[in-house]
């Protein structure tokens, strides 16, 4: 080590506290960058795993390749793994309870395909030889209760054909006219069950999936199979697959887009690009925060060693040599800080992920779909490179400044204090308010601009990062719809296709359940009415004019959607008595009367409002909406608004900004319905139930059973309480990430402030000793420190808050299209920030000066800061 | 009348082999209005003794009594107020506050005491110090001698009972030296101040009422002129 670097080394050791704090700054920045990259790769990994589960673990598939020619694909140098599969076709499923799915749809996979295709074993094992089969779990729910693992079943394989005997393509939905001709009967042993495969969601194949073993050895040379491959270099997939197809007799081929997309390879879908750019923005934020800390550390160190550099320069050190010692300092700090940061980053993120996974297990992601800590080989070099760059940028200006120091200037330390002697006038007010101590504090700030500026700047950056990131979190949580509203019910059921005659029976059966305490049978008929402008609230009108998809007639009336809602007899009574209205007034089936529930919750203004200006006693002309209403003569009818309330009935689901609800009795509802709807409308009749229950484990199952006995269609029974629980956990998990990040950003800021302030105080050791020697009391000393803290804090807030508000506003505007709420400021966080700034400044100042207060004056005066 | 009494005062730095006895078992007393010169070879403990008398350096043992009060028995606040009101200390190496200009540096003890600055006295002081034209300059814009004169002004502005001067003329030419010594003597006489001055210059020492000679931290001679 040459003499210059030796000096640097000893000055680092001498200023141990500052060295440690700077290393902590580097450590934090390395840790955060490493954590951000890890999180990104972990999420990518999660998406990839999910894509493998839903769409399969292969890159591309060649369809209907002759067995002979398949060798060209499987033996291709590009192919990493190849697998065979085939659709065997339909077999009758006699026991099916679902009318439009009377078949099994049988697929054949070879042993590699079993593990790679998107099927998930829930019981038993994969087939290992011909004659073994897996069944979709759903088969057991819809008629196939008797099928058990280990059992053998005989399946009638065959062909579907249309009424004229023409063969039907696989994907043709079932129709009553079709026929099925069995061609052979095969006996299979059930070796296991699989979850309902994801691909069934998007296919119209009228059968339940079953998977049997494909023995590739028994295939004839011209038999056709599908070959799926995993490529060796996924990046080349779009070039190689067409080439391979050309060599294998030009079969059709398709890519597994879902997987390729999350591998970041998809040609037109840049999903990963978005994730990566979010990560890049976050890293940039971290970099800005870190550069200020590390820059400050170097700037302080250089100005502290100014006299040293001056002496070195006067004894012949070249500017280049001096510059290099500053970079040498950076290298040493980086060498210690970066490895520690990597360790802390991996440790921290591993811990966070394990907490998050525990929260999330069994919710948003499947149990096996945990976020894993993925340490990609790129993370370490990326982090090292970015942090090294941060250190270099931070050290650059201080290094240049150090090299430019002229010897005499340095020795007299004349540069730090500007020649401001003449024009610094602290006001009489300052003296009167704060005494001499305040004046001294003020003078110090004004004449010692550079040091003052570094402190205020580090505070400023911390304030801006904290407040703008808080806004970002608030916007993200709100924009992501993650602020949920407590629903007043704990179960909801959406049923379609139940004939109206059976509604009542179904309602009675559900309310008869022991656990059900209250039950709304929520049915609605959508009607419209033409209302003049004066009847609408300004909020609605504003939207009418801005978004022109609202109809307006010649007379200037707007079309208003009014939902006639029935609640079931019991709940209607409950609702009327809750609102102090007599239910008996609303039973008349010749002169209709309803209750206007005049409240809407608009996500756009984040507030409840009254959509209509209509009073009790007014009569509205309504027109029903029904299928093919143009051809049918649907009568208009009059509805009197018998009462107006802002209470909503149990089960109110936001009808949206364009509409309002009129609550009517079941009698009125039935009468109106028979006027408007006919048989054709039944499938469109809405039927919803909202329950308040005492809970109980088997309730969901019981509700499902009841519902299935009324209709074949899919019924949605939602355990609202559980769903909200899950939502809460998801929000919590996301908040952990976001707030974890903000805590780290704050820590970086605090490190910075600590560093700057304590150095500034330490540099003034002699000055304070001097003041004490002319009679400054300990109390006066504290006063000076306190006033300086206040001035620092105020000044930083004065610049920091407006800038962060502007940045928040900018963020809101640039994401404007995503957010459906008006701009707001994170007041809570701003308050925390203001309090935090003062607390941190005061504590640091006190800490830094506590030693000085007791110090021997002469020792401090003799001290040379060299 | 006795104003200062020093009893068995010692200051020892370090321990073992590196132990330095800067001041060793020194006792003497000074009356109000006396002008005492302290002489001795470099490193003989003059500055150390003066600092302890001025209440800015703590002794290892012994006592310093000023007007009967043991100053090292006072708490920090009282000691600070004592320094502010009773003592004017002129350091060997002029110690000025870099952030304050000449005028502010000189009036600092008054400011700390919330006292009004007597303009006439300040101007008189500035004139004697030859600093009238430079009241708005900051210390780093002054020469060594000028800085020394500012620190003398600061020591005298409060008309302290005890003026302690550590080679106040060390950086000055003979004409300036004379003027400064005259100023100190004038102040000493006019305000009945006690003046203790360290000096290497024989002719200045001879102007004192009494000369104390130190060697190796001990008083070897204490003679009245
Ligand atoms: N902090 C310290 N640690 C160790 N020794 C010290 C310390 N400060 C002073 N000394 C020693 O104490 C002795 C007296 O120092 P002092 O400054 O009082 O001398 P002085 O008589 O004022 O000399 P000069 O005429 O050169 O100013 C010297 O030998 C010095 O080396
Ligand atoms: Mg000395």
Give a written overview of the molecule.
The complex is a heterodimer of chains A (866) and B (225). Chain A is built from 24 helices and 21 strands. With 866 residues, chain A is α+β, with helices and mostly antiparallel strands. Chain A has four domains: 186 residues, no CATH class; 199 residues, no CATH class; 218 residues, no CATH class; 217 residues, no CATH class. In chain A, strands 2-3-8-5-7-6 form a six-stranded mixed beta barrel. A six-stranded mixed beta barrel of chain A has the order 12-13-19-14-18-17. In chain A, helix 2 packs antiparallel against helix 8 and helix 2 runs antiparallel to helix 20. Chain A is flat. Chain A starts with a helix and ends with a helix. Chain B is an alpha/beta fold and 225 residues long. Chain B has a single domain, classed as P-loop containing nucleotide triphosphate hydrolases (Rossmann fold, 3-Layer(aba) Sandwich), CATH 3.40.50. Helices cover 33% and strands 29% of the residues of chain B. Chain B has seven helices and ten strands. The chains are: A alpha+beta (866), B alpha/beta (225).
Quick tags:
heterodimer, A: 866 residues, alpha+beta, 4 domains, six-stranded mixed beta barrel, six-stranded mixed β-barrel, 24 helices, flat, B: 225 residues, alpha/beta, Rossmann fold, 7 helices, 33% helix, 29% strand, binds adenosine-5'-triphosphate, binds magnesium ion
């Amino acid at each position: 080590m040459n003499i210059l670097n030796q000096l640097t080394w000893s000055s680092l050791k001498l200023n141990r506290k500052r060295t440690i704090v700077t290393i902590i700054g580097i450590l934090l920045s390395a840790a955060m960058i490493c954590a951000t990259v890890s999180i990104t790769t972990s999420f990518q990994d999660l998406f990839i795993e999910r894509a493998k589960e839903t769409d399969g673990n292969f890159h591309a598939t060649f369809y209907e390749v002759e067995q002979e020619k398949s060798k060209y694909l499987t033996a291709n140098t590009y192919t990493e793994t190849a697998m065979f599969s085939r659709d065997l076709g339909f077999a009758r499923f006699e026991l099916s309870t679902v009318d439009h799915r009377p078949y099994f749809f049988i697929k054949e996979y070879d042993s590699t395909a079993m593990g790679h295709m998107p099927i998930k074993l829930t019981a038993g094992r994969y087939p290992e030889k011909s004659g073994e089969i897996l069944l979709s779990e759903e088969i057991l729910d819809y008629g196939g209760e008797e099928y058990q693992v280990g059992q053998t079943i005989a399946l009638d394989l065959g062909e579907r054909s249309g009424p004229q005997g023409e063969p039907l393509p696989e994907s043709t939905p079932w129709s009553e006219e079709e026929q099925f001709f069995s061609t052979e009967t095969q006996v299979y042993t059930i070796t296991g069950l699989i979850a309902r495969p994801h691909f069934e969601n998007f296919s119209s194949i009228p059968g339940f999936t079953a998977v049997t073993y494909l023995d590739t050895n028994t295939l004839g040379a011209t038999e056709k199979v599908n070959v799926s491959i995993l490529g060796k270099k996924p990046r080349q997939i779009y070039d190689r697959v067409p080439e391979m197809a050309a060599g294998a007799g030009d079969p059709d081929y398709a890519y597994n887009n879902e997987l390729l997309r999350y591998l970041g390879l998809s040609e037109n879908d840049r999903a990963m690009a978005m994730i990566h750019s979010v990560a890049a923005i976050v890293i940039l934020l971290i970099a800005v925060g870190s550069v200020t800390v590390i820059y400050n550390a170097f700037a302080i160190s250089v100005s502290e060693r100014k006299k040293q550099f001056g002496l070195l320069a006067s004894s012949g050190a070249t500017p280049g040599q001096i510059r290099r010692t500053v970079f040498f300092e950076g290298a040493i700090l980086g060498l210690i800080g970066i490895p520690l940061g990597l360790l802390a980053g991996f440790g921290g993120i591993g811990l966070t992920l394990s907490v998050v996974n525990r929260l999330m297990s069994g919710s948003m992601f499947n149990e096996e779909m945990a976020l894993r800590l993925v340490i990609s080989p790129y993370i370490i070099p990326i982090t090292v490179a970015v942090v090294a760059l941060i250190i270099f940028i931070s050290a650059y200006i201080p290094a240049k400044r150090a090299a430019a120091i002229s010897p005499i200037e340095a020795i007299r330390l004349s540069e730090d204090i500007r020649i401001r002697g003449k024009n610094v006038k602290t006001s009489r007010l300052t003296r009167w308010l704060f005494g001499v101590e305040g004046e001294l504090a003020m003078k110090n700030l004004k004449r010692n601009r550079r040091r003052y500026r570094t402190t205020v700047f580090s505070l400023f950056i911390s304030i801006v990062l904290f407040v703008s990131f808080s806004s970002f979190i608030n916007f993200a949580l709100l924009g992501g719809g993650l602020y949920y509203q407590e629903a007043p019910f704990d179960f909801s059921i959406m049923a379609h296709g139940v004939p109206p005659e059976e509604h009542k029976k179904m309602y009675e059966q559900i309310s008869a359940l022991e656990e059900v305490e209250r039950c709304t049978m929520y049915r609605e008929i959508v009607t419209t009415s033409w209302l003049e402008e004066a009847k609408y609230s300004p909020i609605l009108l504003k939207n009418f004019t801005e978004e022109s998809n609202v109809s307006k007639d010649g007379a200037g009336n707007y079309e208003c959607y009014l939902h006639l809602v029935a609640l079931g007899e019991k709940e209607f009574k409950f609702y009327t008595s809750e609102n102090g209205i007599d239910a008996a007034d609303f039973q008349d089936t010749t002169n209709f009367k309803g209750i206007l529930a005049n409240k809407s919750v608009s996500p756009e203004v984040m507030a409840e409002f009254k959509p209509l200006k209509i009073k009790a006693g007014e009569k509205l002309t309504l027109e029903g909406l029904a299928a093919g209403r143009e051809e049918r003569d649907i009568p208009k009818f009059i509805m009197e608004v018998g009462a107006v309330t802002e209470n909503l009935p149990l089960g109110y689901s936001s009808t949206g900004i364009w509409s309002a609800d009129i609550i009517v009795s079941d009698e009125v509802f039935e009468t109106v319905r028979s006027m408007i709807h006919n048989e054709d409308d039944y499938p469109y009749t809405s039927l919803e139930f909202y329950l308040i229950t005492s809970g109980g484990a088997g309730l969901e199952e019981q509700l499902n059973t009841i519902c299935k006995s009324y209709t074949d269609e899919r019924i949605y029974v939602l355990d609202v309480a559980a769903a909200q629980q899950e939502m809460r956990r998801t929000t919590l998990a996301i908040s952990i990430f976001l707030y974890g990040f903000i805590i780290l950003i704050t820590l970086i800021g605090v490190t910075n402030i600590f560093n700057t302030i304590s150095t500034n105080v330490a540099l003034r050791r002699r000055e304070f000793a001097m003041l004490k020697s002319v009679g400054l009391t300990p109390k006066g000393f504290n006063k000076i420190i306190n006033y300086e803290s206040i001035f620092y804090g105020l000044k930083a807030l004065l610049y920091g808050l407006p800038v962060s508000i502007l940045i928040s506003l900018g963020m809101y505007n640039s994401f404007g299209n995503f957010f459906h709420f008006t701009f707001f400021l994170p007041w809570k966080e701003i308050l925390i920030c203001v309090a935090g700034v003062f607390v941190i400044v005061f504590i640091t100042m006190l800490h830094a000066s506590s030693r000085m207060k007791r110090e021997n004056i002469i020792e401090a005066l003799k001290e040379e800061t060299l | 009348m006795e104003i200062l009494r020093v009893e068995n005062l010692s200051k020892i730095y370090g321990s073992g082999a590196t132990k330095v006895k800067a001041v060793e078992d020194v006792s003497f007393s000074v009356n109000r209005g006396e002008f005492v010169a302290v002489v001795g070879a470099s490193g003989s403990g003059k500055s150390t003794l003066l600092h302890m008398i001025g209440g800015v350096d703590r002794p290892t043992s012994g006592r310093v009594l000023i007007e009967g009060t043991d100053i090292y028995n006072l708490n920090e606040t009282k000691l600070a107020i004592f320094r502010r009101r009773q003592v004017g200390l002129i350091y060997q190496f002029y110690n000025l506050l870099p952030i304050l200009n000449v005028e502010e540096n000189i009036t600092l003890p008054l400011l700390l005491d919330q006292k009004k600055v007597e303009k006439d006295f300040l101007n008189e002081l500035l004139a004697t110090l030859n600093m009238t034209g430079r009241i708005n300059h900051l210390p780093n814009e002054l020469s060594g001698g000028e800085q020394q004169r500012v620190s003398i002004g600061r020591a005298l502005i409060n008309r302290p009972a005890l003026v302690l001067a550590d080679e106040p003329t060390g950086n000055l030419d003979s004409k300036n030296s004379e003027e400064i010594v005259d100023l100190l003597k004038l102040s000493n006489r006019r305000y009945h101040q006690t003046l203790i001055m360290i000096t290497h210059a024989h002719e200045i020492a001879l102007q004192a009422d009494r000369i104390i000679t130190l060697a190796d931290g001990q008083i070897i001679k204490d003679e009245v002129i």
